[in-house]
Amino acid sequence: MATKLEYIWLDGYKPTQSLRSKTKIVSDFGGTLAECPDWSFDGSSTEQAPGGSSDCILKPVFICPDPQRRDAYLVMCEVLDSTGKAHESNGRALIDDDDNDFWFGFEQEYFLWDPETNKPLGFPAGGYPGPQGPYYCSVGAKNAFGRDIVEEHLDACLDAGLNVEGINAEVAAGQWEFQIFAKGAKEAGDQIWVARYLLERIGETYGVAVNWHCKPLGQLDWNGSGMHANFSNTTLRTAGDKEVYTKILEAFRPVVAEHIAVYGADNDQRLTGKHETASIHDYSYGVSDRGASIRIPLYTVQKGWKGYLEDRRPNSAADPYKVAAVIIKTVKSAKL
Ligand code: ADP
Ligand code: MN
Ligand code: MN
Ligand code: MN
Predict the structure, then answer these.
(1) Could you tell me if the CB of 311 is within 6 A of ligand 1?
(2) For residue range 63-112, what is the model confidence (pLDDT) as tens digits?
(3) From the CA of 100, how far away is ligand 3's center (Å)?
(4) Domain 103-333 belongs to what topology?
(5) What is 2-90's CATH number?
(6) What is the reported pTM?
(7) Residue 107 C-alpha to ligand 3 middle, in angstroms?
(8) Please, how many CA atoms are within 13 Å of residue 269, restricted to the half-sphere of its CB?
(9) Ligand 2 center from residue 147 Cα (angstroms)
C-alpha cells in the first residue's frame, strides 16, 4: 500500500524562517521514524544553498499521523548541508538536552488574518472593531472570530498525538492561543512546528492566513503576540530553595542580548513595557509578575520553590528550537 509522508522543514529566510514541505510516497510503511529515509531538496530555492551546489539534506527527527490526509504521516526534519553537517538554519541542532531533562510548555499566540482586508478576522474592512476588553476568552459572534478554524486545528493536533494542553481566545480580536507541553526540548519544538504547520494548512481551506508577527497591528492599542516559554529541569523541579532559583534567574541577566537575538523578529515593537510585557532594554523577574521578563509562577512558590519558570519575552514568530537552546545554555551556566 502507498503511504504519504509529508516531510516538513524550516527554510533559510531571515530573520524569520518559514515552513516548507513536500510529499514522499513510500510502500509497506510501518509508521516508525526509523523507516523514514533521508531526503533532499533544492536549497537554492529556500535561501539555504547557492545554485551551483544546491542540495540540502532532510533528516527525519519526528513523526506523527497526518490527521487530515488518508494513509499519511507528518515527518518533521532537520536540515543538513551537502556534507551532512547541521545547516546554519538548523536551530534544533543547537539544543543541548540529549537526556530530555528539560521540559518546555510553549504558549503560542497568533492572529487569524483575512488576506483580502489585510486585517485580523473580526476587523471591518474600513476600520477597527471596538477596543480590547470583550475578546479574551469570549463567546458569541460579536466577539469571537474564527472559532471553526481553531476547533478544527485543536482536533487535528489531538488526532496527530500532539500534547496540546489547551486553547483560548486572546486579548485582541481575531487573536488566539494554543499551549503545547513536552518532556524534552527537542520534542517540544517539534510539536510546536507541526502544530503551526497544521494551522497554516487548515487556514488554506478557509482562505484565512495565520499572522505570526509579534505586533501585526503596530503601536495602536492592540496586544501583540507572544510565545511564552515555560521551562524546568530536574534542578528547578526539585530545588526546594529560593536561592537556587535566584542564582538561575541571575544567570539570565548578563546574556539578555543573546536571548533577545533569538526571541523573534521585531520584538522591540512588542516588548514595550505595556500590554503585559517588560521593556526589551530591561531584565527583571518576580513572583506572579506579568510585567517581568521572567515570571516565577505562584505555583512554584506554593510548592516550596519546586516547579518551573516562565520567560515571557519570546514572541509568536520565534523558533522554539532556538528559544529552548539558549534557555538551556543559560540555565546550565548558573553556578549553583
Ligand atoms: P499563563 O497563561 O498563566 O502563563 P498557561 O496555562 O497558558 O499559563 O501556560 C502554562 C504553561 O506552563 C503550560 O504550557 C504548562 O505546560 C507549562 N508548565 C507547567 N508545569 C511545567 C514544568 N514543570 N516545566 C515546564 N513547563 C511547565
Ligand atoms: Mn497562556
Ligand atoms: Mn496568552
Ligand atoms: Mn504565559
Answers:
(1) no
(2) 999 999 999 999 999 999 999 999 999 999 999 999 999 999 999 999 99
(3) 26
(4) Creatine Kinase; Chain A, domain 2 (3.30.590)
(5) 3.10.20.70
(6) 0.98
(7) 6
(8) 20
(9) 17
